Amino acid sequence: MAANEWINGYLEAILGVNEEDTPVPPLHEKGDFSPARYFVDEVVAGTDETALHKTWMRATATRNVQQRSGRMENLCWRIWHLYRAKKKLKWDATQRLAKHRLDNEQCQREIAGDMSEDFSEAENIGEIFVANDSDSGAFKRVESRPDMSAGGDAHKDRRLYIVMISLHGLVRGENMELGRDSDTGGQVKYVVEFARALAHHPEVYRVDLLTRQICAPDVDFTYGDPTEMLTDGSFSEGDGDEVGQSGGAYIIRIPCGPREKYLRKELLWPYIHEFVDGALNHILNISKALGDEINDGQSVWPYVIHGHYADAGNIASVLSGALNVPMVLTGHSLGRNKLEQLLKQGRQSEEDINATYKIMRRIEGEELSLDSAELVITSTRQEIDQQWGLYAGFNVNRERILRLRAKQGVDCYGRYMPTMAVIAPGMDFSNVIVPDVGDMIEDVEGVAYVGQDGTTVTPATKPDPPILDEILHFFKNPAKPMILALARADPKKNIPTLVKAFGESKPLRKLANLTLIMGNRDDIDEMPSANANVLMTILKLIDKYNLYGEVAYPKHHKQSEVPDIYRLAAKTKGVFINPALVEPFGLTLIEAAAHGLPMVATQNGGPVDIHQALNNGLLVDPHDSNAIAAALYKLVSDRNLWSECRRNGLKNIHRYSWPEHCKIYLSKVALCRKRHPHWQSDDLLDGDEESQSFNDSLQDIHDISLRLSIDGEKSGRASLNGPVDIEKRLQEDSDGRETELTERIKRLLEKMKGHGHEGHENVEQHITQHTRPERTMSSSSKATVLRRRKSLYVICIDTYNKDGQPKSDLASIIREILKSVKGEGSGRTCGFILSTALSAEETVSFLSQNGIKLLEFDAFVCSSGSELFYPVSGNDSGKGADLLSPDMDYETHIHYRWGEDGLRKTMNKFIHSLSDSGRRIALNEESSGTSHCLKYAVKDASNVPTVEEFKQRLRGRGYRCHVIYCRNKSKLHIVPLHASRAQALRYLFVRWRVDVASMTLFVGETGDTDHEELIPGLHRTVILKDAVKEGSEGLLHSSQTYNKDDVLPDDSPNIVTTDVGCRAENIMAALKKLVTA
């Protein structure tokens, strides 16, 4: 076969497709060359294409020379095209990184120009960069005994409520099924142990770990339990503190998506908002319960909301905005880094990667998380510099500048970037098993293990479990040192390279055995394709190098048996190896070190910091199989080096205890800006939900008046038409027959006294004083009206003409909705909200022109969610916006990170820069903008940047906001980060306890660019067919962003579409479908 010139010609063409475009010498000049060896060892293995390998095997097995030649020719062409595609993908990646660098440089110049005049002579920006860059090279790992003086006392003697979110995977406190799939791995173990450890901290009262409830038949029933206690939160002995019935750590499972299905994380994105609404309901209930228990009835708001991974970070971002509390983020692994790694492999295009992993939606979730996060927790410095630095929302140098300015009290013009903190994960040493290796223990001094509750743990010893016998039966010589790898059969874990390194090193094979713990499996054919391909590759390599009797790969193991496996490896004086291509942290390295195992680990990622802290092994290039084999052989063969590495690991392992982790964590969180709903001190809202100010509900007073009159007539007592001795009346009713009425009157009297009406003897006189037509309704007076509503109907129909004015049929649609809802006999139990991009003046004008009364609605969400108004009762003489009363609390609520002046300046620069580059941008700022809404008129919608372009531009410059095209592409609104029409409804939930689940939204098939945020959630959604013919959603996404299908669920029972025609009967039919669903 080597003599076939056409094969040699194709091979030369394939080898010529390389990154450097260097000439390749002819094959006949290379000496000993075998095309078969080249195909198998280089091309097929290098591309990791299972299909190519199968084709090669079939081709070489063909006896007919002509057929074999045809198959080989076809295989050559396939590989040639594959390498050309790989080269193109690498070129695209290079261009993308170059563009990212240019954007960063431009952002740096703009920020330096905007801020340079405010720096003193001692604050030269260049000096800042030099100083910080020099520090980064000598970055120190977080000390095991942190300095708590800076911010550490900010939460002293406080009982904190902390919310953590980890959405995907199978999460439970005991018998965790780690390795069952790619979603149930180290993150699950980390968040469960972290929640449990935090609950034992004396400053923390309760920790809730929120995850998804799963009632699928193919998973254990425990994942369907709504609540699971992790610990009661009792502190270590001697503290003298006791925890109430609500204290401790809990796993709270929130329903979202189809409960009967276990979904991989890539399929959970459409159900994010369902989880948000369910979590919000839980947090409000727990906050009130904790307030009653430990805070004299005042709600205990979450001290922080901590999201883990992109999906939970997205959820935490929305919850943080709804509750106005600080947010913390831990990325664990990042989408942009994964995208770059997959593109470098060259097996998939960006479109294929996005279709498989929903990678663009994940990246957007991470960007949204950066927008809201005050603090980002990372495991390593590398994660900050090389991974988070790929995102528009973070830049190391810009973050340093802004942090320095904020520290010195210099204006940042509304710019913000989150603080990054390196905190290594902790470990629970209570399950550590001391290696039984004779003299190994004697030379280690000062080894102290600390449990999750802060107490010193004496590691236990116990007999060998069955898993050890199962491993040992693989080996011909079980006494040899064991090389242990513990990882899923995942491509990024790089296990095939480890097997290849072991198989090709004869000295290493003579000296050691190899054990691969690759999760649990029953049938390879039932595994996910990527995992099955990795496992098949490993089995083929074992066969190729004839490693039978030298490699162990058990099918099953329990999580409780993992410490015993570490113990076995240490007992044989073996080595632990993590050969991952990139390892975000490497928790298994910590576990191995705690059991006395030296390590060989990848030089990419977290192991670098672990090695610096423990100094217990060697780092290698994961792509170099020879380097891996050499490092393993060095540790196994050199007993003195092995003992030194083991001793160093055991001596320094205390740095990774959970109590130390929690101390550092709380000290960092204490430096975050303290935020909570600012009306927290308002007794009206934090007390009994039925308690109301005297002005809140005239109807309550009229009801009581009528009741008193009737009772007075029946009993011969005085009615309200004459003087009434209220105190006497209450005393007479103390027999319990009118308990409810009596309590209501008592509350009224207390509020009357609080309003200075102690001297009133006639309740009717007091009623008259507060029912004058000229009375103005304040925002707080809506509490009773909104709370009493059993259901709310929100109209969000975005139908506009080309000029951005509401179409005439919008008024008829509103009337049909009012008619259909009221026609069901809901009466006073239902309310209506109008949510629109129109300003308050335009809304009032439109409704008055079409004869629709403002008092038909309970609230108005205007200017794309940046304003919230309530209608004024009984004042028909006003004009324009005077007929609406603004909710000032809402304005304060959404003001977080709003830099109006700086944002306006940056927008003008952006528009001018695009115009100067030859791209005519038809955007003009309008004077009708409000304090929380910058408005621009769009003259030509075909020549404006998409929402994604604007967001990337503004994020890179430190601005966090919400960009919305609206009113049929005629307007551009820029509003605060936490302002939107969807978030305004959640504000009503938090402010007035109007449950989102009791709301029904009416939307069109399209609308403004925030349209997709309105549809998903626990509320019910009615899509009015043909109500909106043209919208602005075409300006939302570009070709490089996620699809609408990644956001909206296609199987939700809470979403229905009406028949054609927005008539009342069609709307009523849709509402009935929702009720029966």
TrEMBL record:
Record protein name field: Sucrose-phosphate synthase
Domain Sucrose synthase first GT-B: from-to ranges: 161-429
Domain Sucrose phosphatase-like: residue ranges: 824-1030
Segments of skewed composition (Polar residues): 765-782
Keywords assigned: Glycosyltransferase, Transferase
The protein's enzyme class: transferase
Subunit structure as annotated in this protein's UniProt entry: Homodimer or homotetramer.
Assigned EC number: 2.4.1.14
Similarity section: Belongs to the glycosyltransferase 1 family.
Region (Disordered): 755-782
Single GO BP term: sucrose biosynthetic process
The Glycosyl transferase family domain, residue ranges: 476-650
Bias kind Basic and acidic residues: ranges: 755-764
Purpose: Plays a role in photosynthetic sucrose synthesis by catalyzing the rate-limiting step of sucrose biosynthesis from UDP-glucose and fructose- 6-phosphate. Involved in the regulation of carbon partitioning in the leaves of plants. May regulate the synthesis of sucrose and therefore play a major role as a limiting factor in the export of photoassimilates out of the leaf. Plays a role for sucrose availability that is essential for plant growth and fiber elongation.
Record-linked PANTHER family: SUCROSE-PHOSPHATE SYNTHASE 3-RELATED (PTHR46039)
Organism: Ceratopteris richardii
Catalyzed reactions: beta-D-fructose 6-phosphate + UDP-alpha-D-glucose = sucrose 6(F)-phosphate + UDP + H(+)
Molecular function in Gene Ontology: sucrose-phosphate synthase activity
Pathway of action: Glycan biosynthesis; sucrose biosynthesis; sucrose from D-fructose 6-phosphate and UDP-alpha-D-glucose: step 1/2
